[in-house]
Amino acid sequence: MAVKNALKHREIAPLAEITVLYRDIRTYGFMEHSYKAAREKGVRFVPYGAEAKPHLVAREGGLELTVRDILVGQEATLAPELVVLSSAVVPYENVPLAKMLKVPLTADGFFLEAHMKLRPVDFATDGVFLAGMAHFPKTIGETIAQAGAAVARATAVIAKGVIGILPTISQVDRDRCVGCGLCESLCPFSAIRVVETDKGKKSETIAASCKGCGICSASCPQNAVTIRHFTDEELCAQIEALQDLPGVGAGGAQ
What we know:
Elements: H1 2-12, E1 19-22, H2 32-40, E2 44-47, E3 55-59, E4 62-69, E5 74-78, H3 95-101, H4 140-160, E6 170-172, H5 182-186, E7 192-197, E8 200-205, H6 215-219, E9 225-227, H7 232-243
Helix pairs in contact: 1-2
């Protein structure tokens, strides 16, 4: 935004002296051309450190701005006629919504996609998609492109008419389950719950929500929860088969 404003001001006032003070500036992609154009048109870029922020005071007859240029290690004093602040883009109160939808947030408080390259508009939670500045600060063009991608993904799900579930989901052995509720409290996808049965409280898996992460299986004190196709018997059989391979066994893997 600062680079864009500087170029626009240069068009309006070609003889004006324009200085951009910044801590971190990113003109990624084709926006690098804007930064290059600003430099070629005489816009000055002065970096400063977080420990020495610019100091602005009102003097008789105008403003006085002091900034320490970290590149040259010296302070510079400017007398600006106009000071324009580039407002920061901060996330909205996303925590309650993230908990309700069971989707993750980044360290900065924006929503985190399932995979940066393979699933850029998806969440790990099925049926929830991401677009725009809920993801991170971006341009209007990027927002429109991502919104189109989110619509395409949502339309693809609707067009199928049915939703398939993963084969590697948890299953509960109700003969072992004592209904303690530990698995329900730990599941990040709310995919397991305790219900009343004719044998008392027992856990059951919500197949459409389960992602097969294995937290419930690992935490169950009664060993009542297993992940389909990853039972102890199957894992032990794989280990035994591996030991029978040539070059593997008592002598170790080669």
